[in-house]
Specification:
- This protein is an alpha+beta fold and about 220 residues long.
- The chain is about 45% helix and about 25% strand.
- It folds into two domains: about 1-125, TonB (TolA/TonB C-terminal domain, 2-Layer Sandwich); about 130-210, Alpha Horseshoe (Serine Threonine Protein Phosphatase 5, Tetratricopeptide repeat), CATH 1.25.40.10.
- It has a four-stranded antiparallel β-sheet, sandwiched between helices. Strands 2-3-8-9 form a four-stranded antiparallel β-sheet, with no helix packed on it. The protein has a two-stranded antiparallel sheet with strand order 4-7.
- The longest helix is centred in the middle third of the chain and has 17 residues, at about 130-150.
- It holds the Pfam family TonB_C.
Length: about 220
């Protein structure tokens, strides 16, 4: 038996003022039949429709997949990107259901003018009685021990397991970025630190400034 928890990863529903520009992020509106069935949010819509892929369920594979997509000015969806993956079948299941919401979004606005904007949704697939925080912390501690023994490649593999359970955890993202730097994966390191920055953490800022100033690595700055 499984339990699926769903959540919108970032609060993008509030009107914001950026440099005197009135910015309103995209909002999921649904359609009349959805509203009549009490689907009050994208979370409700996903929870009703997302299915645990049979292969992943049978293998007791768990974790949180994060998908970014663009809500175009006409309310249609485009450019689906997996930010954090569990397995390809789980990722594809989330994207498949998200694509069903095409045309059910009120586009973001810039000073009243509809514009294309990004949204991000995370979906957690969790077996009953499973503790993802505890599992992620276990892998994190194991990775630290491997680093202390100068085994960064093993540490990186372990951190990749940890991130599946807690993809937005600051400490895991930061340590994986440092570990990727050690093994020579500069692009991966900068991606992790930029992800930290996009989540509101300054934990990786010093590393971003030192290692990720080149155009090839400067993401979400």
């Amino acid at each position: 038996m499984f339990v699926v928890f769903l959540s919108v990863a970032q609060d993008l529903t509030k009107t914001r003022m950026l440099g005197g520009v009135d910015v309103i992020p995209p909002v999921f509106t649904g359609i009349d039949i959805i509203k009549s069935n009490d689907f009050g949010s994208i979370n409700d819509y996903l929870e009703e429709r997302v299915q645990y892929p049979e292969e992943s369920e049978s293998r007791w594979i768990e974790g949180t997949t994060i998908v970014q997509f663009t809500v175009l000015a006409n309310g249609e969806l485009d450019d689906f990107r997996v930010v954090s993956s569990v397995t390809s079948d789980i990722d594809n299941e989330v994207i498949k259901v998200l694509k069903l919401t095409d045309g059910m979004w009120s586009p973001g606005k810039n000073n009243g003018t509809p514009v294309a904007m990004e949204r991000e949704v995370s979906v957690t697939f969790q077996m009953e009685n499973s503790d993802h925080v505890k599992l992620a912390r276990k892998f994190y501690n194991r990775a630290n021990k491997r680093l202390l023994k100068n085994k960064p490649l093993k540490a990186l593999r372990i951190l990749n397991h940890a991130i599946v359970y807690q993809p937005n955890d600051y400490s895991i993202l930061f340590l994986r970025g440092r570990t990727q730097l050690i093994v020579g994966n500069m692009a991966g390191a900068c991606q992790d630190w930029n992800r930290l920055k996009s989540l509101g953490s300054d934990l990786g800022d010093a590393y971003l400034e030192k290692h990720c100033e080149m155009d090839d690595y400067a993401v979400n700055k």
